[in-house]
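RECORD TYPE: inverse folding
INPUT: structure tokens
STRUCTURE:
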């Protein structure tokens, strides 16, 4: 019988956050695949876990996944851990899970610490709908494309960032999303110097101009305020005459009746009001 791959979340700063089930699963596994075996040794020592370890990191993730799949097929139960947090979230776990599914190997994911969720819940921003972007792409063009999408994002946005890129990222976000946009800069979560700074992007840029970023960061940014945007649009529409407004739609090949409906919707008035206004001009 094939083995099972267990995704085991580990603490993102506070050792007390490991679950009993994760400790038990790690102790019972035949093999632990870890992002950095030296780093994970501290965790193993802290919880008295004595199971062989092998490395599974970003640089060998596809090649090594084949080796791990072979072992799973032979019946080896493997627990996957990363440096911190939930395997598969902005770390190499994703590739291995995909390959297991393709090979018909069982995978189970244990719940546990994840910096994205800790930051989101602490941010004080809307948690009802959110999107997780992980790290912004390193490639300049790809990064610009992602930021372009974020400009129109209504949901709360969660980003991971390394301290040495923080200033540049905040500046780029301010330039594109506007200085008034709210952000919660979440730092050193679950650790002694945990801190959540609720600022505007303008304030965040100016704070980090004077203070060197230190530690680990998650950025939680408010999405576009849909209601305010509609108000803004209404204001802009009202700057146009009714004929100019109609022309936006008729120029797109939309017939006058449908165009009137759209104009009414944009301005938050009835179709008959649009009709009257057009007759009156
Ligand atoms: N798999 C992990 C998880 O579940 O959160 C994330 C791994 S990713 C390689 C590492 C990034 O997560 C860091 O650069 C930082 O943005 C964020 N992070 C991890 N631990 C953190 C902490 N204690 N406080 C703030 N951010 C943290």
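DESIGNED SEQUENCE:
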């Amino acid at each position: 019988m094939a083995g099972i791959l267990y995704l085991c979340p580990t603490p993102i700063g506070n050792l007390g956050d490991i679950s009993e089930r994760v400790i038990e699963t790690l102790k019972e596994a035949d093999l632990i695949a870890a992002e950095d075996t030296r780093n994970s040794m501290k965790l193993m020592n802290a919880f008295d876990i004595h199971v062989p370890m092998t490395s599974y990191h970003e640089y060998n993730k596809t090649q090594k996944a084949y080796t791990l799949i072979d072992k799973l097929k032979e019946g080896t139960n493997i627990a996957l851990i990363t440096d911190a947090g939930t395997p598969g979230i902005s770390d190499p776990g994703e590739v291995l899970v995909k390959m297991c599914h393709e090979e018909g190997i069982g995978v189970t994911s244990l719940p546990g610490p994840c910096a994205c969720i800790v930051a989101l819940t602490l941010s004080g921003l809307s948690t009802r709908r959110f999107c997780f972007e992980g790290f912004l792409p390193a490639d300049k063009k790809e990064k610009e494309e992602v930021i372009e999408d974020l400009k129109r994002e209504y949901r709360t946005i969660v980003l991971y960032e390394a301290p040495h890129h923080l200033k540049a990222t905040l500046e780029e976000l301010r330039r594109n999303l506007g200085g008034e946009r709210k952000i919660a800069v979440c730092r050193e979560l679950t650790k002694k110097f945990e801190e959540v700074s609720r600022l505007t992007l303008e304030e965040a840029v100016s704070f980090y101009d004077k203070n060197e970023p230190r530690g680990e960061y998650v950025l939680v940014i408010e999405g576009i305020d849909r209601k305010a945007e509609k108000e803004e649009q209404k204001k802009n529409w009202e700057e146009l005459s009714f004929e100019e407004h109609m022309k936006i739609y008729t120029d797109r090949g939309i017939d006058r009746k449908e165009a009137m409906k759209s104009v009414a919707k944009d301005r938050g008035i009835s179709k008959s009001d649009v009709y009257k206004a057009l007759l009156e001009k």
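NOTES: The CA atoms of residues 27 and 49 lie 6 Å apart.
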